[in-house]
Design brief:
The chain has a single domain, classed as START domain (Alpha-D-Glucose-1,6-Bisphosphate, Chain A, domain 4, 2-Layer Sandwich). It has a 7-stranded antiparallel sheet with strand order 1-7-6-5-4-3-2. By secondary structure, the protein is α+β, with helices and mostly antiparallel strands. The N and C termini lie far apart (45 Å). Helix 1 packs across helix 3.
Amino acid sequence: MPVQISVCETVNAPAEAAFKAATHIDARELIRPHGPLPGIVHVDDHDAPWSAVGEARRHSLSDKSSVREELIAFTPNQTFAYRLTEFTGAFSPLVKSARADWHFTQRTSGSTKIDWTYAFTPQSLAAEPVLWFIVKLFWPGYLKSALTRVKQKAEEQSQT
């Protein structure tokens, strides 16, 4: 059974600007260390904005671990999703794979609601309670701080 967590943020910018900010932000800027969770320090392979299903990259993290990320869905200004696999380090015995979905909903006020959901597939039944604890306790703040950076970027870009 996947362990799931969702966060949302309202951005004072149109969906196009919010989507562009999320897909164009440098992964190292987006995912920074938060509590015990590592940040991205290096990107191999596709170090460019997300733009097409099948694009993949490997992230090296601040705790010396790494993970592979592949874009699996992409509808401009509406949604994108990626799958994370090949975890190393502390997450390796806990996580078989993860899926992240971003949805952008344009509001009549000109703002955009961003919903970001992660679903983790545990490596085993024994790993599930540990994974559940980590995801429920630490992941909301991790994602929320990243969304705050996307919000700032989108709002800055829509002002220019």
